[in-house]
Specification:
single chain; about 350 residues; alpha/beta
Amino acid sequence: MERKPLQIGELCARVPVIQGGMGVGISLSGLAGAVASCGGVGVLSAAQIGFRTPGFEENPLETNLRALGEEIAKARRIAAGGVLGVNIMVATKQYAEYVKTAVKAGIDLIISGAGLPVELPALTEGSGTKIAPIVSTVKAAQVICRLWERKYQRFPDLVVIEGPKAGGHLGFSQEQLEFFTPERYEEEIREIIRYVKGHGRKHGCEIPVAVAGGIYDRADMVHAMELGADAVQMGTRFVTTYECDASEAYKRAYLEAREEDIVIVKSPVGMPGRAIRNRFLEEVERRPGVRSRCYRCLEHCNPGKAPYCITKALIDAAEGRTEEGLLFCGSNAWRAERLEHVEEIMREMEGSF
Protein backbone atom coordinates (compact mmCIF):
# COMPACT_ATOMS: atom_id res chain seq x y z
CA MET A 1 0.00 0.00 0.00
CA GLU A 2 1.34 3.40 -0.99
CA ARG A 3 1.74 5.82 1.89
CA LYS A 4 0.61 9.34 1.08
CA PRO A 5 1.17 12.48 3.12
CA LEU A 6 -1.81 13.93 4.95
CA GLN A 7 -3.13 16.93 3.07
CA ILE A 8 -5.46 19.26 4.99
CA GLY A 9 -6.12 22.07 2.55
CA GLU A 10 -2.74 23.70 1.99
CA LEU A 11 -1.30 22.07 5.12
CA CYS A 12 0.78 18.96 4.50
CA ALA A 13 2.06 16.46 7.05
CA ARG A 14 4.68 14.17 5.53
CA VAL A 15 3.70 11.34 7.90
CA PRO A 16 -0.09 10.78 8.12
CA VAL A 17 -0.03 10.63 11.92
CA ILE A 18 -1.91 13.03 14.18
CA GLN A 19 -0.79 12.99 17.80
CA GLY A 20 -3.89 12.96 19.99
CA GLY A 21 -4.45 15.92 22.28
CA MET A 22 -4.17 14.73 25.88
CA GLY A 23 -5.04 16.78 28.92
CA VAL A 24 -4.40 17.82 31.55
CA GLY A 25 -0.77 18.66 30.86
CA ILE A 26 0.14 15.51 28.91
CA SER A 27 0.45 17.00 25.42
CA LEU A 28 1.79 20.51 25.63
CA SER A 29 4.45 22.28 23.57
CA GLY A 30 7.18 19.68 24.14
CA LEU A 31 5.31 16.70 22.73
CA ALA A 32 3.31 18.57 20.08
CA GLY A 33 6.37 20.40 18.81
CA ALA A 34 8.41 17.20 18.59
CA VAL A 35 5.73 15.34 16.61
CA ALA A 36 5.33 18.26 14.21
CA SER A 37 9.09 18.52 13.72
CA CYS A 38 9.16 14.83 12.71
CA GLY A 39 6.56 15.28 9.98
CA GLY A 40 3.30 14.53 11.79
CA VAL A 41 0.58 16.78 13.22
CA GLY A 42 1.46 17.77 16.77
CA VAL A 43 -1.54 18.58 18.95
CA LEU A 44 -1.70 20.46 22.24
CA SER A 45 -4.59 19.94 24.63
CA ALA A 46 -6.28 23.14 25.80
CA ALA A 47 -7.77 21.40 28.84
CA GLN A 48 -6.60 23.35 31.91
CA ILE A 49 -3.43 24.15 29.96
CA GLY A 50 -2.33 26.78 32.49
CA PHE A 51 -2.39 24.60 35.59
CA ARG A 52 1.35 25.08 36.14
CA THR A 53 1.20 28.83 35.47
CA PRO A 54 1.12 31.37 38.32
CA GLY A 55 -2.40 32.73 38.80
CA PHE A 56 -4.21 29.51 37.89
CA GLU A 57 -5.75 28.96 41.34
CA GLU A 58 -7.03 32.54 41.50
CA ASN A 59 -8.26 32.87 37.90
CA PRO A 60 -8.20 29.60 35.90
CA LEU A 61 -9.81 30.99 32.72
CA GLU A 62 -7.55 34.00 32.32
CA THR A 63 -4.48 31.92 33.13
CA ASN A 64 -5.47 29.14 30.74
CA LEU A 65 -6.01 31.55 27.86
CA ARG A 66 -2.64 33.19 28.46
CA ALA A 67 -0.92 29.81 28.72
CA LEU A 68 -2.60 28.58 25.53
CA GLY A 69 -1.04 31.37 23.51
CA GLU A 70 2.33 30.84 25.18
CA GLU A 71 2.33 27.07 24.63
CA ILE A 72 1.41 27.45 20.96
CA ALA A 73 4.33 29.87 20.52
CA LYS A 74 6.71 27.43 22.28
CA ALA A 75 5.50 24.53 20.16
CA ARG A 76 5.95 26.59 17.00
CA ARG A 77 9.62 27.13 17.85
CA ILE A 78 10.15 23.38 18.30
CA ALA A 79 8.04 22.33 15.31
CA ALA A 80 10.52 23.49 12.66
CA GLY A 81 7.76 24.46 10.26
CA GLY A 82 5.61 21.40 10.95
CA VAL A 83 1.83 21.31 11.36
CA LEU A 84 0.42 22.17 14.78
CA GLY A 85 -3.08 21.72 16.14
CA VAL A 86 -4.94 22.15 19.41
CA ASN A 87 -7.68 19.95 20.84
CA ILE A 88 -10.47 22.00 22.44
CA MET A 89 -13.38 20.16 24.01
CA VAL A 90 -16.85 21.49 23.22
CA ALA A 91 -17.76 20.71 26.84
CA THR A 92 -15.23 23.29 28.06
CA LYS A 93 -16.67 26.35 29.79
CA GLN A 94 -15.99 29.49 27.69
CA TYR A 95 -15.28 27.22 24.70
CA ALA A 96 -15.51 30.19 22.31
CA GLU A 97 -12.77 32.07 24.17
CA TYR A 98 -10.37 29.14 23.83
CA VAL A 99 -11.06 28.84 20.10
CA LYS A 100 -10.58 32.57 19.51
CA THR A 101 -7.32 32.55 21.51
CA ALA A 102 -5.94 29.61 19.50
CA VAL A 103 -6.87 31.31 16.22
CA LYS A 104 -5.24 34.56 17.33
CA ALA A 105 -2.09 32.61 18.21
CA GLY A 106 -1.97 31.31 14.63
CA ILE A 107 -2.75 27.64 15.24
CA ASP A 108 -2.97 25.58 12.05
CA LEU A 109 -5.77 23.23 13.08
CA ILE A 110 -8.46 22.95 15.76
CA ILE A 111 -9.74 19.45 16.57
CA SER A 112 -12.92 19.48 18.62
CA GLY A 113 -15.00 16.78 20.29
CA ALA A 114 -16.67 15.98 23.65
CA GLY A 115 -19.84 17.30 22.08
CA LEU A 116 -20.63 18.50 18.56
CA PRO A 117 -18.69 21.66 17.62
CA VAL A 118 -21.72 23.38 16.14
CA GLU A 119 -20.31 26.94 16.29
CA LEU A 120 -16.71 26.19 15.29
CA PRO A 121 -17.03 27.57 11.72
CA ALA A 122 -18.34 30.90 13.01
CA LEU A 123 -15.61 31.15 15.64
CA THR A 124 -12.84 30.60 13.08
CA GLU A 125 -14.37 32.56 10.19
CA GLY A 126 -11.90 34.74 8.30
CA SER A 127 -8.85 32.91 9.64
CA GLY A 128 -6.58 30.35 8.04
CA THR A 129 -7.17 27.87 10.86
CA LYS A 130 -8.49 24.49 9.69
CA ILE A 131 -11.29 22.83 11.63
CA ALA A 132 -11.92 19.16 12.40
CA PRO A 133 -14.84 17.64 14.30
CA ILE A 134 -14.40 14.39 16.22
CA VAL A 135 -17.20 11.91 15.55
CA SER A 136 -17.80 8.36 16.75
CA THR A 137 -20.86 7.34 14.71
CA VAL A 138 -22.29 7.83 11.24
CA LYS A 139 -25.18 9.77 12.77
CA ALA A 140 -22.82 12.28 14.41
CA ALA A 141 -20.91 12.74 11.13
CA GLN A 142 -24.15 13.38 9.25
CA VAL A 143 -25.44 15.86 11.82
CA ILE A 144 -22.30 18.01 11.94
CA CYS A 145 -21.62 17.96 8.17
CA ARG A 146 -25.20 18.88 7.27
CA LEU A 147 -25.44 21.52 9.98
CA TRP A 148 -22.19 23.23 8.95
CA GLU A 149 -23.29 23.18 5.31
CA ARG A 150 -26.75 24.59 6.02
CA LYS A 151 -25.75 27.20 8.58
CA TYR A 152 -22.31 28.29 7.40
CA GLN A 153 -21.80 26.87 3.89
CA ARG A 154 -18.70 25.30 5.41
CA PHE A 155 -17.25 21.81 5.34
CA PRO A 156 -14.82 20.06 7.67
CA ASP A 157 -11.18 20.34 6.66
CA LEU A 158 -10.62 16.98 8.38
CA VAL A 159 -12.81 14.50 10.23
CA VAL A 160 -11.46 12.42 13.12
CA ILE A 161 -13.25 9.13 13.86
CA GLU A 162 -12.65 8.25 17.51
CA GLY A 163 -13.49 4.64 18.28
CA PRO A 164 -14.30 2.78 21.50
CA LYS A 165 -10.65 1.86 22.18
CA ALA A 166 -9.63 5.49 22.69
CA GLY A 167 -8.39 7.00 25.93
CA GLY A 168 -10.05 9.50 28.21
CA HIS A 169 -13.66 10.49 27.63
CA LEU A 170 -15.39 8.33 25.05
CA GLY A 171 -18.16 9.40 22.69
CA PHE A 172 -20.28 6.36 23.49
CA SER A 173 -22.82 5.29 26.04
CA GLN A 174 -22.10 2.19 28.12
CA GLU A 175 -24.60 0.31 25.95
CA GLN A 176 -22.81 1.37 22.76
CA LEU A 177 -19.46 0.25 24.17
CA GLU A 178 -20.96 -3.21 24.69
CA PHE A 179 -22.64 -3.22 21.26
CA PHE A 180 -19.62 -2.19 19.19
CA THR A 181 -17.50 -5.29 18.79
CA PRO A 182 -14.31 -4.70 16.78
CA GLU A 183 -16.01 -6.07 13.67
CA ARG A 184 -19.12 -3.94 14.10
CA TYR A 185 -17.07 -0.81 14.66
CA GLU A 186 -14.96 -1.42 11.58
CA GLU A 187 -18.17 -1.35 9.56
CA GLU A 188 -19.12 1.89 11.32
CA ILE A 189 -15.74 3.34 10.30
CA ARG A 190 -16.35 2.35 6.68
CA GLU A 191 -19.80 3.94 6.77
CA ILE A 192 -18.47 7.19 8.24
CA ILE A 193 -15.70 7.36 5.64
CA ARG A 194 -18.17 6.68 2.82
CA TYR A 195 -20.47 9.41 4.04
CA VAL A 196 -17.74 12.03 4.64
CA LYS A 197 -16.01 11.36 1.32
CA GLY A 198 -19.34 11.48 -0.53
CA HIS A 199 -20.30 14.70 1.22
CA GLY A 200 -17.03 16.27 0.14
CA ARG A 201 -17.23 15.07 -3.46
CA LYS A 202 -20.78 16.39 -3.79
CA HIS A 203 -19.43 19.87 -3.06
CA GLY A 204 -16.17 19.58 -4.96
CA CYS A 205 -13.85 19.26 -1.99
CA GLU A 206 -11.65 16.54 -0.52
CA ILE A 207 -12.18 15.85 3.19
CA PRO A 208 -9.45 13.65 4.71
CA VAL A 209 -10.46 11.24 7.47
CA ALA A 210 -8.32 10.06 10.39
CA VAL A 211 -9.08 6.99 12.51
CA ALA A 212 -8.35 7.12 16.25
CA GLY A 213 -8.70 4.72 19.16
CA GLY A 214 -6.50 1.67 19.58
CA ILE A 215 -3.81 2.82 17.11
CA TYR A 216 -0.47 1.83 18.61
CA ASP A 217 1.93 0.63 15.92
CA ARG A 218 2.41 0.54 12.17
CA ALA A 219 0.29 -2.59 11.78
CA ASP A 220 -2.64 -0.72 13.33
CA MET A 221 -1.99 2.18 10.99
CA VAL A 222 -1.92 -0.07 7.92
CA HIS A 223 -5.20 -1.67 8.98
CA ALA A 224 -6.84 1.75 9.37
CA MET A 225 -5.66 2.70 5.88
CA GLU A 226 -7.13 -0.53 4.52
CA LEU A 227 -10.47 0.56 5.97
CA GLY A 228 -10.19 3.75 3.91
CA ALA A 229 -8.58 6.22 6.32
CA ASP A 230 -6.18 8.92 5.11
CA ALA A 231 -4.41 9.15 8.48
CA VAL A 232 -4.44 7.90 12.04
CA GLN A 233 -4.58 9.71 15.35
CA MET A 234 -2.66 8.14 18.23
CA GLY A 235 -2.17 9.34 21.79
CA THR A 236 -1.24 6.55 24.20
CA ARG A 237 1.94 5.54 22.35
CA PHE A 238 3.29 9.08 22.70
CA VAL A 239 2.84 9.20 26.49
CA THR A 240 5.88 7.00 27.06
CA THR A 241 8.23 9.25 25.11
CA TYR A 242 11.02 11.37 26.51
CA GLU A 243 9.39 14.41 24.90
CA CYS A 244 5.96 13.93 26.50
CA ASP A 245 5.09 16.75 28.90
CA ALA A 246 3.81 14.41 31.65
CA SER A 247 5.87 13.66 34.76
CA GLU A 248 8.22 10.70 34.86
CA ALA A 249 5.95 9.04 37.43
CA TYR A 250 3.00 9.34 35.02
CA LYS A 251 4.98 7.65 32.27
CA ARG A 252 6.12 4.94 34.68
CA ALA A 253 2.48 4.18 35.54
CA TYR A 254 1.91 3.34 31.88
CA LEU A 255 5.02 1.20 31.73
CA GLU A 256 3.90 -0.75 34.80
CA ALA A 257 0.26 -1.16 33.77
CA ARG A 258 -1.05 -4.63 32.96
CA GLU A 259 -3.84 -5.32 30.49
CA GLU A 260 -6.27 -6.07 33.32
CA ASP A 261 -5.50 -2.65 34.87
CA ILE A 262 -7.15 -0.81 31.97
CA VAL A 263 -10.76 -0.12 32.96
CA ILE A 264 -13.84 1.85 31.91
CA VAL A 265 -14.80 4.50 34.46
CA LYS A 266 -17.64 7.01 34.75
CA SER A 267 -16.43 10.59 34.69
CA PRO A 268 -18.00 13.36 36.80
CA VAL A 269 -20.00 14.50 33.75
CA GLY A 270 -21.51 11.04 33.34
CA MET A 271 -19.51 10.00 30.27
CA PRO A 272 -17.64 6.69 30.13
CA GLY A 273 -13.87 7.02 30.04
CA ARG A 274 -10.86 4.72 29.97
CA ALA A 275 -8.20 4.85 32.67
CA ILE A 276 -5.62 2.84 34.61
CA ARG A 277 -7.04 1.37 37.82
CA ASN A 278 -5.26 2.73 40.89
CA ARG A 279 -5.89 3.62 44.52
CA PHE A 280 -7.75 6.80 43.51
CA LEU A 281 -10.37 4.90 41.50
CA GLU A 282 -10.80 2.35 44.24
CA GLU A 283 -11.31 5.17 46.75
CA VAL A 284 -13.90 6.85 44.51
CA GLU A 285 -15.83 3.57 44.33
CA ARG A 286 -15.85 3.28 48.11
CA ARG A 287 -16.46 6.91 49.05
CA PRO A 288 -17.65 9.11 46.16
CA GLY A 289 -17.80 12.84 46.79
CA VAL A 290 -15.91 15.96 45.76
CA ARG A 291 -12.95 16.47 48.08
CA SER A 292 -11.49 19.64 46.58
CA ARG A 293 -12.52 23.01 45.18
CA CYS A 294 -14.43 23.10 41.88
CA TYR A 295 -12.53 24.65 38.97
CA ARG A 296 -15.71 25.02 36.87
CA CYS A 297 -13.93 23.51 33.87
CA LEU A 298 -16.78 21.62 32.18
CA GLU A 299 -20.09 23.03 31.04
CA HIS A 300 -22.31 20.22 32.29
CA CYS A 301 -20.58 19.25 35.52
CA ASN A 302 -22.63 19.62 38.70
CA PRO A 303 -20.15 19.85 41.61
CA GLY A 304 -22.89 18.96 44.03
CA LYS A 305 -23.33 15.56 42.43
CA ALA A 306 -19.89 14.89 40.93
CA PRO A 307 -18.04 11.94 42.51
CA TYR A 308 -14.78 13.93 42.30
CA CYS A 309 -13.25 17.01 40.67
CA ILE A 310 -11.83 15.86 37.35
CA THR A 311 -9.46 18.83 37.08
CA LYS A 312 -7.88 18.08 40.47
CA ALA A 313 -7.70 14.35 39.67
CA LEU A 314 -5.98 14.91 36.31
CA ILE A 315 -3.56 17.50 37.70
CA ASP A 316 -2.57 15.16 40.53
CA ALA A 317 -1.78 12.43 38.01
CA ALA A 318 0.08 14.72 35.59
CA GLU A 319 2.27 16.04 38.41
CA GLY A 320 3.26 12.53 39.43
CA ARG A 321 0.85 11.71 42.26
CA THR A 322 -0.27 8.72 40.26
CA GLU A 323 -2.04 6.85 43.05
CA GLU A 324 -3.99 9.96 44.00
CA GLY A 325 -5.15 11.05 40.54
CA LEU A 326 -6.92 9.98 37.36
CA LEU A 327 -4.71 8.25 34.78
CA PHE A 328 -6.63 8.43 31.50
CA CYS A 329 -5.27 6.08 28.84
CA GLY A 330 -6.10 4.21 25.65
CA SER A 331 -6.81 0.48 25.45
CA ASN A 332 -3.18 -0.28 24.56
CA ALA A 333 -1.44 1.46 27.46
CA TRP A 334 -0.33 -1.93 28.82
CA ARG A 335 1.73 -2.51 25.66
CA ALA A 336 4.29 0.16 26.60
CA GLU A 337 7.57 -1.46 27.61
CA ARG A 338 10.11 1.35 27.52
CA LEU A 339 10.59 5.05 27.06
CA GLU A 340 11.34 6.03 23.48
CA HIS A 341 11.86 9.18 21.46
CA VAL A 342 9.14 10.66 19.27
CA GLU A 343 11.50 10.35 16.33
CA GLU A 344 11.63 6.54 16.76
CA ILE A 345 7.84 6.27 16.63
CA MET A 346 7.55 8.52 13.62
CA ARG A 347 10.23 6.57 11.74
CA GLU A 348 8.30 3.38 12.42
CA MET A 349 5.04 4.90 11.22
CA GLU A 350 6.67 6.41 8.15
CA GLY A 351 8.16 3.08 7.07
CA SER A 352 7.22 1.35 3.86
CA PHE A 353 3.73 -0.11 3.78
